[in-house]
Amino acid sequence: MPQDSAANAQDKDRAAIAQAVANFVNAWNLHDAHAFAMTFTEDADFTNVAGTHANGRASVEAFHAPMFAGIFKDTHQTAVIRSIRFLRPDLASVDVDWQMTGAKTPDGAARPPRKGLLDWVMARQSDESWLIQVMHNTELTNLPAAPPAK
Question: How far apart are CA 31 and CA 34, in angstroms?
Answer without folding.
Answer: 9
